[in-house]
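Interim report, section 4.2 (structural modelling).
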Amino acid sequence: MDPSTNGRKTLLRWFDTKDRRPFPFQEQTWDAIASGRNGFLLAPTGSGKTLALFGAFLISQLDKKGFKSGKEDRSAKKEPLTSLSLIWVTPLRALAKDLEKNMQEAAAELGLKVRIERRTGDVSASQRQHQTKKMPEVLITTPESLHILFAQKEYATHFDALRLIVMDEWHEFLGSKRGTQAELALARLRMISPKALVWGISATIGNVDEAKEVLFGDDKLASKAVTIQATHKKDIQLTSIIPDKIDEFPWHGHLGLHLLPKLLPHLDPPGSVLIFTNTRAQSEIWFRAILEARPELAGEIALHHGSLTREIRMWVEDALRDGTLRVVVCTSSLDLGVDFSPVDRVVQIGSPKGIARCLQRAGRSGHAPGQSSHLYFLPTHALELIEASALRTAIQRGELEERYAVLKPFDVLAQYLVTLAVSDGFDEEKLYQEIRQTWAYSTVTPREWQQLLTFLTNGGPSLTRYSEYSKIERDENGLYRVLDRKIARRHRLSIGTIESDAMLRVKFLTGGALGSVEEWFIARLEPGDSFWFAGRNLELVRVNQNTVFVKKTQKPATVIPTWLGGRMSFSSNLSSGLREKIRLAALAEEGRNGFLEEQKENENRKDSLRKGKNENEIGIPIEPELETLQPIFEIQKRWSLLPNEHQFLVETSRSREGYHTFFFPFEGRNVHEGLSALVATRLAVLKPITFTIAMNDYGFELLSDQEIQWSESLLRGLFSKEHLERDLLKSVNMAELAKRRFRGISRVAGLVFQGFPGRSKSDRHLQMSSSLFYDVFNEIEPNHLLLKQSYDEVIQYQLEETRIRMALDRIQHQDIVIRPTHKFSPFAFPIFVDRLRERVSSEKLVDRIRKIQSQVASEFTKAVRRDS
Amino acid sequence: MNKNSNLALVNLELSRAGQTLLLFGEKAVFWKEQQILILSDLHLGKSHHFQRNGIPLPDGYQDLTLSRLEALITFTQASRVFFLGDLFHSKYNPEWEYFRIWVEQLKSFSTGQISELRLVKGNHDILPESIYQSAGLKLCDHWTEGPFLFLHDRDGAVSKKLLMDRKPALCFSGHKHPGVRIKTSARESIPLPCFHFTVSDLILPAFGDLTGLHLITPNNQDEVYAIAEGELFLIPNTSLSTRNSKRFRP
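Predicted structure of the assembly:
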C-alpha cells in the first residue's frame, strides 16, 4: 500500500502546523492498518497512542473526502444508512469524554465532517435514541454499552460498515469481568462484520503475549496480528523521604503523617506536585493536614478522588493543566487516562504495592522526551522502606507484573445469553461455536454449556417439582428468546458487571453536588454532626432518599469518611523483591562487607542483564533505605532472627490476649490470607481450637487461648502441598468468602435484581438478598454452576492458589526456625496491631453464643462489684 | 435455614399484662390463656413468584415452612392461629393451592381443634379477599383481644393512630423481619433473627424460610431474644455489633 496517500499527506501537514512529527510507532500503525492487518499496540498513557489508531481512521476519511470532492466524482454512490466505521472501546466511562473531545477537535481541524460520539451510561436517552436511528462514524463506548446495544432488536444492522474495532487500555480489562464482556462483544462484532480490523492498545505488562492472545481469542489469530511497540523508555528516579531518627519512627501505621514536615519542602515552588495516596480517606486526611501546616497553599492545592463528582474532578484536572493548581492530593483516580501536562514531582504516600502502579504514577512527572521522572516515596511505617528499595531494584531491572484474564465466568455468560435472547434470539449451536472463539470460554465443555442452558430455560435441577420458571424459551424457528416483556425490560436495565455499594450523593442545600459516600458512613451520623469530605467541613442537614444534604460549617469535623474497599496486596514480583532485600539485610548483619559485596555483585549481574546499557559501574552505595533501617534489623536479629533465603521464620510469644504465633512467608496479604486459613484449618482438624487470624504483606498471625507445641514436623505437615485445594475449600472462612463473591455473581447472572427508579410494586416483590440465594442453592443444589464459580473465584483470584502452591513449595525447602520472643519483634508488631481480624473456630455456633453470654455476664458482675 | 426433621420446640415462658406468652425458637409466640398461636411474615408462594419473573428461586421451602407450623400447632394444641401479615408473597400463583389444601387437611386431621385462622393483612397481602376466604381465613386490618393489639406494621400511619387511641398493654406486629448482629469476637459478628420487645411492642421474626433480615438497633430498655439453631438467647445490648446501625431505605 502506498504510504503517501493524499489523506496521509494532509494528516502530516496537520502535524506540521502543530510543530510535531508523528512518532515512528504511529506511522507503523497507519501502515499496518492500511495494509489491512490486525494488531496490538504497546504504548503507555500520554504517548500519542490515540492518534496512532484514530489517525488511521482520519487518513481513510481524508482519502475518501479527497476522492469525493474531486471533479471526476459527481456520481458518488448513495451514502449507506449505517456509517459506523470505528468502534473505540474504553474501560472507563470517564475516559470516553476526553477521547470524544480530542477526536472531535482533531477531525474539526482537518475539516472533516464526521460524527464522533460517545455511547456510555451517562449519555442522555435522547442522544442514544438518535444514535440508534443513525449511528455516528465513530462510536466511543464501553463493554456494557455494547452489550446493551446487543439487547436491542436488529442491532446487527448498525455494524454493516464497521472497519475498525479498537480496544483501548486492554491491560485494564484483563483480570476483570468487564474484560470478559469485552471479549464476548468482540467475538460478536467479528461475527457480524468479519472484515473489520481488530486492534488492542495496552500498557507494557509482564505477559504481553498472553494479553494479545486473550484479545484475539486464539494464538493463530494473535500470531498473525502485528505487535507495535512505542519505545518511550523513561528514566525513573525513586527517592525515599527518610525519617531523621528511625528510633522515633513507628513500626506500624498507614497514614504516614509523622513525615509531614519532611514532605512540606517538596511542595514549595517552583513546580507542580501530585501526591498519590492509596485510599480516598487517606487523601482527605493528608489534604487537611497539608492545609493546616501550610495555610498559604489555599487556592493552589486541591483534592481528587473517585468519590468526588465528575464536575469537581474535571475542574481539578483543568486547573492542573492550566497551572492554576500546583499541588493535588489524589488516589488512583489520576492513575489512568486523563491527559494532562506532566507535573514536576510525584509523591507516593505509603507502599504502591506493585511495580506497574508505581511506574504509572511516577510517569506522571517529566513527560518530555529525555526528561526523567521523579518519584518521592513517603513511608507510613519503618518496614515500608524495604519496599521502596525493592521497588527501585525492580524498576531498574525492568520487571513488571503479569495480568491474567478471567477464565470461564459463567455469570457473565449467563447474562450474555439472556441479552441476545432479549433482542433477536440465538441459535444454540452457532452461539456455542462463537463463544468458544473467545479466550475466556474457549474451554467450555458441551456439558457445561448444556448446564447453563438448562439453568436459563428451566432453572436447573433444583426447580423440578411444580416449577413455574421461565426466562428464555425456544421459538418456532428454534431460536432461544425471552418472550416475557417484563423480564426483557428488567434484563436491559441490569446489564453490566460492576458491583456498586449503596452510595449516597452529597449535595449542598443550596444545590451543587460534591460527590458520594457509602451509606453506612452517613448512617452513623445524626443531623447537626459535622464531617470532613471533599476537602471541607460539612454539617449534615438531612438525608432524603439517596441524597445527603449538607451545608458548610465552621464546626470542626470529628469524622472523615472511609470507603470500604479491598486492601491492596503485594504483587508477586514485589514480594520476591522484598524477600531479596531482607536476605541482603540478613547478610549485612553477618558482616557489613559481605553486604556491600553482595550488593555490588548484584548490580553487576543486573548490568549484564541490561545489555548495552550505559551504567555506572563503580561505587554503588548501600541503599539509604536499608542503611536507615539498620537499627531495626538489629533489634529484629537480637529479639528473634533476620531470616536469610534458607530460613522460614516462625515467632511465638505470649500476651494477655493469649498465645501468638507469627509466620513470615513475605508473600503479600492475599497469599497470607489463603495460607493462614489453610494452616488454621489443618490445625483445627488435629484438635478443637479457636483462632483469630491477622495478616499483612509480610506475614500472618494465629492467636489462640491454648498453647500449641510447635515442632518442625508439625509445621512441615501444616505447610504441605498435598490436598491443597481440598483443604482450602474446607477452610472455615471459605463460606464467608464465597458468599461475598456470590454477591457479585448473583447480580451479574440475574438472580438478584437491583431496583431502579420508578420500579413498580411487583418489582419490589422480586428483591431478595444474594446470601439467601447462596444458602438456598447450597442446601438444594450444591453443585450449582454459579456456586462452583464463587468457590473458584475465591481460590483462584482472591487466595491466589498458584502463588500459595509456590510459597508452600519454597517453605518445604527452607529450614523452619521457631523463635520464642519476649516482645513482639519489629516484623511481628505491625501484624499484632492490625485490627482486621478473622476468626476460625470449630466450636458450634450455639456454644459460641453461650460463651459470649457468660463472658458478658461476668463482665457485668465485675462492673457491679467495682461500683460498690 | 435448617431442615425441620427434628424440631427442638424449645420455648421460653414470659408474662405480660398478666398473660402467659411462650416464645418458640421456631419463630412463633403462643398465648397460653387464649390458646392462640401467633406468627408473621410467611411469604408463601415466593418461589413461584420469582420463577414466573425469570429468577430460578428453588421451591420446596413452602413445605418446610408449613410443616414447622404444623408441628407448632400439634405441640401447643392451639385452637386459633393469627398470621400478622405477609402470608402470601405477591400475586396469585399455584403455590396458594398447596397452602389451601394444607389448611383443609389440617382442619380434617385436627378434628375441630382449629377454630380460627386469622390474617391481619400486611403490605404483601394483595390477593382478592375471596381467595383468602376460600382457604377459610378470616381477614382484618388489625385485631384487638384482651390487653393486646395485633397488626402488621407498627410504624404505619394507621397503626400509630391506633396505638395512640387504644394504648394496648402490648402490640404484636411483624413486617420488619427483625435481626441482630451478635459480636462473636472483636471483628466478627453474625446476623440472627430475633424477637424484639420494646416497652409496648413485640415485633416477631419472619416465620417464612425464604426471608431475609432487617438489622435493628434496640434501645437500652428493650429485650432482644435472638434465635440460633432453634434456640433462644436473651441478648445483652453490649454484645451487639455496632454494625447494627440504622439503614436508610431509599
